[in-house]
Amino acid sequence: MALDVAKKAEIIKKFAKNEKDTGSSEVQIALLSERIAYLTEHLKTFKKDHSSRLGLLKLVGQRKRLLRYLKRTNYASYTSLIAELKIRDRT
Questions:
Q1: Are 56 and 33 in contact (CB under 8 A)?
Q2: Tell me, what DSSP letter sits at residue 39?
Q3: Are 44 and 85 in contact (CB under 8 A)?
Q4: Angle between helices 75-85 and 50-73 (to 10 degrees)
Q5: Is 30 exposed, middle or buried (0-12, 13-18, 19+ CB in 10 A)?
Q6: Among candidates 6, 83, 16, which has minimal Cα distance to 75?
Q7: Mean predicted lDDT score pLDDT of the chain
Q8: What are the start-end ranges of the H helices in the chain?
Q9: How far apart are CA 84 and CA 28, in angstroms?
Q10: Are 60 and 36 in contact (CB under 8 A)?
Q11: pLDDT tens-digit profile of 43-64?
Q12: What confidence score (pLDDT) does residue 89 get?
């Protein structure tokens, strides 16, 4: 399930670099993290929902690639983002 409009707008407002920023790495990572958290809770209830589990794995991989890119290009932003989202640094 996709995020509702209000929640998505709130996340974009919080992590955007300026008022028109909707696609920066930070915003994309924050949105993916919210969807990952939702799917994780969903799978705790519905353990046999394998299609959602596959979608979750794809989202985690996409977030991992974006985090790797952000770490390579803007390390200061990377460290502040993982601290704020409470994501572990796996490298």
A1: no
A2: H
A3: no
A4: 140
A5: buried
A6: 83
A7: 93
A8: 5-15, 25-45, 50-73, 75-85
A9: 14
A10: yes
A11: 999 999 999 999 999 999 999 9
A12: 84
Residue 84 — φ and ψ, nearest 5°?
-70, -35
- Kindly report the backbone phi and psi dihedral angles of residue 61, in degrees, each rounded to the nearest multiple of 5, phi listed first: -65, -40
Task: Tell me the residue type at 51.
Answer: S
Output the pTM of the full model: 0.91
- Inform me whether the pLDDT recorded for 91 exceeds 70: no
Q: Take residue 35 and report the two structure tokens written for it.
A: 């969807």
Comparing CA positions, the residue from 75, 61, 73 lying closest to residue 29 is 61
Establish how many alpha carbons lie within 13 A of residue 55's alpha carbon, considering only the half-sphere containing its beta carbon.
15
DSSP state of 66: H
